[in-house]
């Protein structure tokens, strides 16, 4: 076996090899990850003002250039693997990601492409967040827009991020902060420390100051130190994570997405035409994302839709991680798969729900195949919108089909990260647009995972980090 | 400080002490009501059947619930009947507290601790600050005695671990943090306005204090810490960063039932892994198989910590602590087994609230 590769803690420019480590094996290569104790993080956070100064000294447009360059380095470059001289090629990265998270190589590459696109389109992304304000805003603090001086100031000197392990694509959310001159403090997900590490290395290689990054693999306690020690923070997690951090206004919590596809009355009879969009919404990226649909609502033909969807989903079978056709992800921790499967079986005992995929699936929901534990796609037909399986989300292609009158759909869906409403009904569209339960709304036959760079994902990062203040008077001094 | 005993001599001393203590606790003239009553219904006679430490395996594991249920006076040895006693309570227990009686044990333990470190480690004649659980705890008197024994005085800032536990259990993490800040505020004030060179506190409070000020610049010379798990990384962090490599550090493992286990001096090859040694023969720590607690683990393996305390004041045979540790061999400083890298029992398989303290 080769010498272990060691991912250090990154302490705002200083790599640190901890005595507490996580160890993974990727084929014959051991990967060790240094773990930071919470006190170490709290001490380091005192150095953030210096990190902020380093970023402030670089023009924002230049940082955007660097981000575009970092995009290519992330996608194609050989970047530091960890401490030492070893370099990580894109193939090394995808292979390790696949081994650590159970994600097929094909999906790993796809996610790499998504993150690359988010970086390469950074100008469009930031422009979308600021609604087209000049990057001068971040250098001078104000711009002149439509004859008015507009001043925004940073509400924080750092952005803390508790990352999940479910999908590397989620990393694209924190990237714009660096171009907005806000240092980041990252706690990587336990099973995917390598994506944020590679991103940080790409950005440093492209010209970002190393002092702008904190990278702290750590415990829950360390995660709390990070969340409560930064002025603004984003946490990803379960409903329990949401409950824990919701009271704190400086923390934006991203819990279960519970994204949905709604078919309006005007499209209900044409449901067959949109099966592809619905299947993509449920199963793309292995069903791992919060933007995957976990419920489909239709006002009639519910049973037929459920049966057709189940047939299509059941055709998505476990394949080897190296198979280019692979869609399903294995579970890095089989106990998690077992827990989910047991929970679904338990909830199916409540009357009003049927696992329709069971009619077509090869074998049980949970199976061992190609050296991994899989949960096969599952489509539940629910006759009752309050059934415990009607509005839930799991980390694999899982969705419910509900037959609900269109007029009741908005009241039924609850908080939903993405809603794709397939309709041309003008009045209902307005109702959807004024609903407070929907974070991201697609109108038309678009999958829930559709990305448009100019649109914010989940909250607006710019508005989270910056705040406008009234500015009047003589601005000669400000230039 | 090296021990004057060899390993066999230390074992012989432990066996002799065991005989002496059994004779003391199970003789009607000197023993306490609780153990004398126990002996009447035990079906065997410790006075006849215990002749060395290994014979203590005849006892079942001590159930510390009796310290909650029984009146403390039932544990007062007849020989101490005319002396008022201290009542000490265990640290973070909620509900009816577990209590033990005591007289001079804490003084003996802490004088021995003091002697082990010699005159310079904790500079003699200097003042101390204790930041941690005071109230009905042995530690409060013990630290003050230690300071006095070394020619200084001791200031105190209290932290109530029961309240911290309750806050965390209620999900009031923000309030727990505020309480911790309140404690640190008080400690920082004392350090800034009084001449303090030695401090006793818990590791977590120590690091919080160091987030407020440079402890080196504040004039601290030595830290005595105990209370929660300290992994090697944590110890390294404390030594290198919290204490800036310039302040003496004495990590300890202890509780109300045992007293104080001192850690052997760290060597580079230890890689910051701590090993503690019980104040033998007054207390003995064994690392036993959690599934077959009569059997010792092998050196280098994790097992459950078993405590036996034998002083004239108190007898606790084979109490299974809620901790696990690595069994470590005797060393130059302590010619008996040590316990390394202590952590809560089964901490890798269940959630433990160790609190913010």
Topology:
The complex is a heterodimer of chains A (479) and B (357).
Chain A: E1 5-7, E2 9-11, E3 15-16, E4 21-26, E5 29-34, H1 38-45, H2 48-56, H3 60-76, E6 79-80, E7 87-88, H4 90-101, H5 105-120, H6 122-130, H7 136-140, E8 142-145, E9 148-154, E10 159-162, H8 175-179, E11 184-187, H9 194-206, E12 213-215, H10 220-229, E13 232-236, H11 239-245, E14 251-254, E15 259-263, H12 275-283, E16 293-298, H13 302-314, H14 334-348, E17 353-355, E18 366-369, E19 372-375, E20 378-382, E21 398-403, H15 406-413, E22 416-422, H16 426-434, E23 438-443, H17 461-465, E24 466-469
Parallel strand pairs in A: 1-5, 10-11, 10-13, 11-12, 13-14, 15-16, 15-22, 16-21, 20-21, 22-23
Antiparallel strand pairs in A: 2-3, 2-12, 4-5, 6-7, 8-9, 9-24, 17-20, 18-19
Helix pairs in contact in A: 1-10, 3-5, 3-9, 4-5, 12-13
Chain B: H1 7-25, H2 33-42, H3 46-49, H4 66-69, E1 86-89, E2 99-102, H5 105-117, E3 127-132, H6 138-149, E4 154-158, H7 161-169, H8 173-193, E5 196-201, H9 203-212, E6 222-226, H10 232-242, E7 248-255, E8 259-263, E9 275-277, E10 283-288, E11 302-310, E12 315-328, E13 338-344
Parallel strand pairs in B: 3-4, 3-5, 5-6, 6-7
Antiparallel strand pairs in B: 1-2, 7-8, 8-9, 9-13, 10-11, 11-12, 12-13
Helix pairs in contact in B: 5-6, 7-8, 8-9
